[in-house]
Amino acid sequence: MNMKKNIIFSILLAAVLFTGCSKDDGFVPKEVAIDEVPQPSLVINGGSAAIDLTNLASFQGKFDVKLLYPNDIQPAKMDVVIRKNNVNTNIKLFQAGITTYPTSLTITAAQITTLFGTAIVLGDNYDIGVDIYTTSGNKYEAFPAVGAAYGSTGVANQPGFSPTVRYSAICAYNPDIYQGNFV
Question: N or C: which end of the chain has fewer CB within 10 A?
């Protein structure tokens, strides 16, 4: 009886294996196009570390737009964009068509106010990133309205990779305000 069960099981197993395989797996492309996307690196390079609301006129955010691997694939161009308060639908173009790397840029509080059309208030965060245009004509957004940005994937774990810089509006400590005799 046991031998009979083994033979039946073997025949069923063979039938499943041989009938389950087919050479026609449907449409499979012969080649998958790979778009090589350069990896940007934005780095604060001097200037102000934050936007001081007590002295807006003095803010100068200085940063460099570089490539993480300068000798690797080059982009067709990059556009520097700014996102306000983590809202991916509130993005403004700061500098278009950068083709030389590294490129040093400076932004002021007056420029930010003009771009967004509103005054800078305490707690505002301004993230600066780049939209990448590849030589094949594709665009990869720093802050896409839908989906993940190129910097939020596994490449973000590479040493030296910094796809954005952030400037936050703060009320900086000024010791001169606290002069005098009081408790």
Answer: C
Cα 21 to Cα 36: distance, rounded to the nearest angstrom? 35
Summarised one tens digit per residue, pLDDT across range 27-83 is: 766 777 777 888 888 999 989 989 999 889 999 999 999 998 889 889 999 999 999
Q: C-alpha distances in angstroms, 113 versus 12, 90, 95, 96, 118?
A: 74, 13, 15, 18, 6
For residue 137, how many C-alpha atoms fall within 13 Å in the half-sphere facing its CB? 0
Model's pTM, two decimal places?
0.75
**Read out DSSP for the chain?**
-HHHHHHHHHHHHHHHHHHH--S--S---S---------EEEEEEEE-SSEEGGGGGG-EEEEEEEESSTTSPPPSEEEEEEEETT-TT-EEEEEEEE-SSSEEEEEEHHHHHHHHSS---TT-EEEEEEEEE-TTS-EE-SS-SSS--GGGSGGGGSTT----EEEEEE----GGGG-SS--
User: Which tokens is 124 given?
Assistant: 């505002």
CB atoms within 10 A of CB 133: 19
